[in-house]
Amino acid sequence: MKDKLPDFLQGVIEEYPEVWKAYQTLGEACGTAGPLDPKTVRLVKLALAIGAKSEGAVHSHTRRALREGITREEIQQVALLAVTSIGWSSSMAALSWIQDVVDKQTQSD
Questions:
Q1: Looking at the whole model, is its pTM more than 0.90?
Q2: Number of C-beta neighbours around residue 87 at 10 A
């Protein structure tokens, strides 16, 4: 199951499909450019989203991580690791965004 994209983004994709395709290709190339395994790549992407304080990206990477078999505890640890880098409040916000996704998944199971 793919993430449902926001309506605005879906409109941009429909208007500029070649830009979206190039963006996806770049993402795939970056993900396979080095020795990191897919699980580590996903957790790093989650960490970057947390550091950027991007709620939407944290939600997206959390959903993907869960689908890829990464545990709730592993995902939550990424937010906890951020405490000493980006601060308590920002890390707790990220942890709450992760919990949003975990709660939603639990309700749908």
A1: no
A2: 11
